[in-house]
Write a structure and sequence with these properties.
By secondary structure, this protein is mostly helical. It is built from 5 helices and 2 strands. The chain starts with a helix and ends with a helix.
Amino acid sequence: MIKEFRDFIAKGNVMDMAVGIIIGAAFTAIVSSLVADLINPIIGLVTGGMDFSNLFVNLGDGTFTSLAAAREAGAPVFAYGAFITAVINFLIIAFVVFLLVKMVNRVKDSAIKKAAEQAPAPSGPSELDVLLQIRDALKK
């Protein structure tokens, strides 16, 4: 059973997936910073200084000036701004992954096309030529 597990882990697909997960986690940090530090301020300028990450509805008693203050007080909150930020993060990550997959597919197609062009043409008669010769020989 340990040997089977070791063989499973050693397969290329599992290792590729592990590398993808690690790179994805690092990429998520970059995208989160992009959204929080670059995109949200631009959206804030367009919407008159609105900060999505601090938007919430207090479901309990009391009045709070910020989401952090409400959470610190232990008040139940509906933090829809954090959800909007998560959706923006997801859309950016999905778009970048789409572009990466598109680029990889283009490179693969180009490599396959080059390999097909460089493949030597078969020497000698084709299968059709041989079959025609056999047919002609049987007619005689």
